Amino acid sequence: MATRHLITGQNNCAPDGASSSNPFGALANALLGQSSKAQSIKELPGASVNVPTTSDYSTSAPLSTIPGSENEFRQDQRPPGWGTEFIHGGSANDWVESFRPPGHPVVGGPAPNFAEFDQIYSNAGTTSGPALDGPPQRVLSGVLHSFLSSGRAGVPFQPVPIPALGLSEGDKQCIRDRSCIMARHILADQPEEYIQAQVNTLLHSLDIDNNHRMRNPLQGPYPEMEEYWNQSQNALRSAPMHNAADQWITEFGKQNNNPDDWAHSFEQHHGPNGWASEFEQHQSQMGMGQMGGANMANLAAMQQSRMLAQTLSSNNDPKFQNSKFFQFVSKMSRGELIIEDNQVKQGSASQSSGWADEFQTQYNANANSWADQFVHEELSQGADKWVSEFSSERNQGGLNEKWADEFSKLHVDDEWAEEFSGGAFGESSADPWADEFQNQLSASKQNSGASRGVYVFSEMNPYVGHPNPMQEGQELFRKGLLSEAALALEAEVLKNPDNAEGWRLLGVTHAENDDDQQAIAAMLRAQEANPTNLEVLLALGVSHTNELEQGEALRYLSRWLQNHPKYGGLAPPQPTDSFYGPDVIRLFNEAAKMSPEDADVHIVLGVLYNLSREYDKAIASFKTALQLKPHDYSLWNKLGATQANSIQSADAVLAYQQALDLKPNYVRAWANMGISYANQGLYEDSIRYYVRAVSMNPKADNAWQYLRISLGNASRSDMTAACDSRNLDVLQKEFPL
Amino acid sequence: MEESKLKAARLLLQMRDHLATDAGKELAEKVGFVYQLNISPKKLGVDEEIFVVDLKKGAVSKGPYEGKPDATFTFTDDDFLAISSGKLNPQMAFIRGKLKIKGSISAAQKFTPDIFPKPSKL
């Protein structure tokens, strides 16, 4: 999850599009912001407000110097102008004014209109004309301003006495979560204690209890958690992500080596009641009754064990472990651990220990079987018998980690454990569970928007706001920095969605980065903008060939001929949508006779022969083209891939090597190299090439999957955990090229 | 098999070639089961095409197996591709109802991504 995403709060405060009415979102945008002022004014709801051009904040520290913000820009179709508004546009009051629809009177006195405020602040649906009255908002933004400026100035934030704001629980949670995150951005160069002190003061003055832990409704836990995971591994390795669970986690970090102490301090900080009541709240919030305890139990168990397995996988680095642990806990805190709701609904004091045991039992039950099943993805057990085996294995699990052990000593409650084992898991059948799981997955799929043919933008893009992203993208592409180039070009096509060349180059970049799905999506946009571009049509033909989609590939390659100024006449006058491979090949052979010096015709022919699986002819075509264009690295790769697909893997390696000599950062060729070695049974070698490919483009999913398979084939299952957690450091160290 | 419009057919053709190589023969020896694949373009069971991956003989063919295959798998074209490339865990596919299995469990267990060749990308 992009930090901005967190901050602008689509998860529990306001969905996309509505977060503009959220002061914290605005503030976050201001801090990370990049948009022009003019744009932002247009976007204000009820935008009848004139915004002053002078500002208290426009002269403050330049945004680009904010530490830690360099990579945190979020690319977003929604104009992020609010933040700029907030910073540059004028005082807090002006900003607040801007929320007021025209004609709506200001309520002068300190009589806060709580209901309306709540509606605006945490409302999910309304994007048009929010009716908002001043006082709470004004007070709030005043406080936030002083918080912000104290952060900039590096002085401790002075709490200010403010009237009761009547913030709802949701509001408080928003503020709590986001202020923690934001503080880390603003104060990234400050010691952790200082940041926490700042946040605590702020929260205290807003009468928000910082001991609550972050939670989210159960929406799309998978992508979210995985992104969390990536983030904690990469960006935040040096500064572990904290949220409202700050104290708790810090405590854990300090006491990491002494689980006993940790457990104590955990209890001190939260007390049995805190957890339990939080837990209870979740239940009522999420309407768990409908979902059915057993289903949830299974679902949660699966997710949790997945996390557990990750936690267990490697724990050399305390920070690493810390962040994982944080995720794990934050997951639980989102209610994914509400398994025995019948248990938890009872008295609060016993609930805490109940929870602990629940966790303990879960852990016992699942660490072995579930983790094995789902994380290591081995067919270790027959799928048919799976459910019954699971229940028989449930009690076998052993403790794999000390802290869990300690945890269990702390709260022993056998009775509960018995109930647990006799309850949810025993009674549940596989079918409802599977349905539930599937719903969950399809939901998360929808959330990620990764449907076919739809271009998926990166969440964090430092090039948004770049004065000339197109030039930058071309430059980066030329230097071979493909992933960077893709970001710059994404920024370009966000700015100019009709820039066919921008989309085309973006597509080429993705193809070279071994991502055909994204390449196709980008090329489709390029084709939309310019339907007759020959390079685009060829690229679409190639990518669809790679995806084994013959019909589509043939269609685009035929259009290539139809739209060619020279060979267009060869195509049948009535363009049809049903293409017959041999016919198309015949036409291209005629074209090749017309101008045998045109390398492009031979390239298309090579692709067409790949489609018809006439590999010898394909190889001959590409070799002809290479005589005309010996420095075309993508052509060398095409030759290699054709040879590999026609089981001439040894030759393929030589061709790939040519491509890599010409373009060392050619991820596709590295990945193909791995495939060729794997096809020859040289799994160790293939691993090294796959690792090289994924270290150049960590988003190369195919290469990751192939890497995993090769690890299994090479009897290096010891490294699959590193592969699953996409731990490049470990892999690169283990498999240098 | 060549006429099939399925993506699976293309992969299986490549597999047929691959099984002729040394690495392929080694692989077939290691597995040694006969799998029947019932693959539908979009919806399970609709317009199904049947292929046989015979890793006893190291052969791939179209049409139902004459005799009793060790295991029979039913899935859609996309899901088969996802499984063969390692994108989708067969067990997960089974649980999610995307994959139906008939036959011996031990044979089914060996139906993993590593028996399939990986298409190289142009």
What does this structure look like?
The complex is a heterodimer of chains A (737) and B (122). In chain A, 64% of the residues lie in helices and 0% in strands. With 737 residues, chain A is mainly alpha-helical. Among the domains of chain A are: 130-209, no CATH class; 463-531, Serine Threonine Protein Phosphatase 5, Tetratricopeptide repeat (Alpha Horseshoe), CATH 1.25.40.10; 532-630, Serine Threonine Protein Phosphatase 5, Tetratricopeptide repeat; 632-736, Tetratricopeptide repeat domain (Serine Threonine Protein Phosphatase 5, Tetratricopeptide repeat), CATH 1.25.40. The model of chain A is unreliable at 1-134, 211-221, 235-245, 283-295, 325-354, 365-385, 387-432 and 443-450 (pLDDT under 50). Chain B has one domain: Nonspecific Lipid-transfer Protein, Chain A, CATH 3.30.1050. Chain B is built from 5 helices and 5 strands, in the order ααββββααβα. Chain B has a 5-stranded mixed beta sheet. The longest helix of chain B has 13 residues, at 7-19. At the A-B interface, helix 21, helix 26, helix 31, helix 33 and helix 35 of A face helix 1, helix 2, helix 4 and helix 5 of B. Chain A: It is found in: Cytoplasm; Peroxisome. Chain A: GO terms for molecular function: peroxisome matrix targeting signal-1 binding. Chain A: One of its GO terms (biological process) is protein import into peroxisome matrix, docking. Chain A: Residues 52-79 are annotated as: Disordered. Chain A: TPR repeats lie at residues 500-533, 599-632, 633-666, 667-700.
